[in-house]
Amino acid sequence: MATLLAGKAVSGNAYLAGAAVGSRQVLRARPLRQCGVKAERAMWLPGSDPPEHLKGELPGDFGFDPLGLGADEERLTWFAESERVHARWAMLAVAGILVQEIVRPDVFWYEAALKSPMPFGNSPAAILGLVAFELFTMHYVEVRRAYDLKNPGSVDQDPIFKSYSLPKHEPGYPGGIFAPFIPGTLEEMKLKEIKNGRLAMLAFVGFVLAAQVTGKGPLGALGEHLGDPISTTIFSKAVVVPGQVVQPECKIPPFAEYGGIKIPTPCLFSGLWP
What we know:
Elements: E1 3-8, E2 14-21, E3 24-31, H1 73-103, H2 124-150, H3 186-214, H4 218-227, H5 234-237, E4 239-241, E5 244-246, E6 255-258, E7 261-264, H6 269-272
Antiparallel strand pairs: 1-2, 2-3, 4-5, 6-7
Helix pairs in contact: 1-3
C-alpha cells in the first residue's frame, strides 16, 4: 500500500510530491503556480513591490522604475529597445577599448581616432562628407528599427534585394543570420545579455572618467591603482567633504584637431564638481 507524501520544497519554485513504494520513493516537481502558491519574483530591492506597469515580462525587469518613466506602455517598449541597443554598443565599445590597449598599449584609446588615417584624405570636406554619410545611414537604420517596433514584421524584407528577408521574430531579436547559434535557451540569453550590457554601460562611463582624470586607458589606470592601492583611489582623485573640495585635473585637452577641423573635447568635471 502506497503512502502519499506531500512536502514543500525548501528551495526553488516547486512543491515535491512523493509516493513511497517499499524502500523506493518517486518524486515529481510541480510549479508553484499549479499549487496555488505565488512564485517569488527577483527584485532590485528584496521585499519591495514592483510598479504596476512592470510585470516581469521584459528581460532584466527587477521592478526598478522610481520615476515611473515606463508607465506608458508604448514608451516602455521604446525604452526597453533603447536600453538593449545601448547595451550592445557598450559591450562592443568596452571589448574594443580593452583589446586595443592590449594590442597597442602605446596608443591612448581616447585619442585613437585622431591617429587613424582617413580613407578619403584628411581634408575638412572629406571628413564632413564621411560624417554626413554616417548620419544618413544610421538615421535610416534607426527609422527602420522604429517601424519594426511600431508594426512588427513590417521591415523584415530587404527593400532592395527582395529575395532576402528575416524569419519571423520578436522585435529586437532578429535571429537568422544575426544569431546563427544560440548557446542556450533564448530567454536565458536575453537575461544574460541585458545584465552584461548594463555592466558594460557602467564600465564605459568609468573608462571615460578614468581617461579624463588619469590620461590613461583602463588597464593603465588599473595598474596605477595596483601599484599604490592606498593613495591611488577614486577618493584621492576627487572627493567632496565639508569645507574641502578635491577637484581632479583634466588630462584631456579642451580641443582636438583632425583634418583641419577643431573638435571640442571638454572634461565632464567642470559641470559636475562645485
